[in-house]
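Handout, page 2. Input:
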Amino acid sequence: MDPSSSPSNPIPIFATLTSPFQISPNNNTSSTKKPLSLWPGMYHSPVTIALWETRSNIFERLLDPPLDAPPQSELLKKTPSQSRMTILYNFSSDYILREQYRDSWNEVRIGKLLEDLDALAGTISVKHCSDEDSTTRPLYLVTASVDKMVLKKPISVDLDLKISGAVTWVGRSSIEIQLDVTQPPTEAAETNDSVALTANFIFVARDYKTRKAAPVNRLIPETEQEKLLYEAAEARNTLRKRKFKEDRKEIENGEVKRFEALLAEGRIFCDMPALADRDSILLKDTCLENSLICQPQQRNIHGRIFGGFLMHRAFELAFSTAYAFAGMMPSFLEVDHVDFLRPVDVGDFLRFKSCVLYTECENSDQPLINVEVVAHVTRPEFRSSEVSNRFYFTFTVRPEAKAMNNGHRIRKVVPATEEETRRIIERMDADSL
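Output:
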C-alpha cells in the first residue's frame, strides 16, 4: 500500500482560486485588503474572476460602500464606447478552459455561458454608472430582466469565443446592455456570420442607503449604429410598459373563444380521460422540480445570490424538462424572457418548478418546446413562498436524435385550470411579438 494514501497521511487540498483583492506578495503589511466577509462568493467562472481583477478598483467601493457619503450630485454624459467591454475565451489553446465549458456534444455549456453573460452585463452597468468620485456613495445595481436571447448557431468549444457588449439605452434609473457572442464560422457552417448569440440585459439602479430608484448617468450615442440600437431599445422599453399594463386586460376582455377552446381540451383529460387525445398531455404531467439552499459561495458583491447562478440552475432544469417530455435529446434555441422579481439571499430555501407550457409542431423538422421555470423563495418558519424569478426557454430536438426516433411525435400541452390557460396564452402572445 502506498504510504502517501494511508489514513495517517491525508492528501492535502489547496484552494486554486485567488481573491482579486490580494495584495502583492512583495507587500508584507497585510495579507488582504478586505476582510473575508466582504469578499464575493467563490462560486465563479473564470470569466467572473477575470472581470473582478479587471475592475477591482470600481468593485472595492461596492464591497464596503460609504453609506454616509452623499449621493452623486451631477449626472455624467457617457457614450456607449466608454462602457464597452470584450472578453475572449482562448479555447483553441487553453485545454483546461476548454474542459471547463465543454458539454456532451463538444459545444459550450449554455448554462455556464448564461452566468458569464450576466457577469459581463453587470460589470458594464457598473462601469457606466461610476462617477469616479470616491467621496460619493455608489449605486446598487440589480438585474431586472433579460430580453429575448437568441442562439443563432451552435457554439463550438474548440474555437476561440468572444463576448462584447456596451450600454445601448438608459432611462431614468434603468440601463439596457446588449451583448454579442461571436465565433469564427467553421468550414461546414451554412453561413459566414460570426455572431452566435445576442442578448439584452436590463439593470435597475437603487440608492445604496435608501434602496429607492436612483438616476443613472445619461447616454449619448455617437455613431449611426449606436443611434439605431438606442431607438430599438427605446421601442422595446415602451412595449414592455404597455404589455405590463394591458396583458391581463386583453385576456379578460378578448379572445374568449380561444381561452375556452384551450381549456375545454384539458377538461376532457380531467373528466373523460379514456376519450382524451393521445397526442396531447396535461400541463401538470410535464412538471419537474428541484430545490437548494443558497450558499455563501454563490453570492455576488452585494452579498446576494448571483443572478447568473440562478439562470444556470434554471436552464439545467428546463433542459431536463424538455428532455423528459420529448423523449429525445433537446437542443437549446432561445431564452425567451427572464424576470428578476425579488432578490435571493444567502440561506434562502429556493425551489425551482418547471413545466412545458406549450409546443409548436407545425414544422415537423424543428418542433418547438416552450418551457417555463419559476423560482420560489420558500420560508418554512413563516409558512410563506414568494416568486423570485421567472424564466422562459425554447428548445427543439437535436437532428441526430430525431433521425434515430423517426415517427416519434411531440405532444400538444393542454391546461386543466383557468390559471394554466392564462399562462399559456400570455406566453404565446409574448413570444409572437
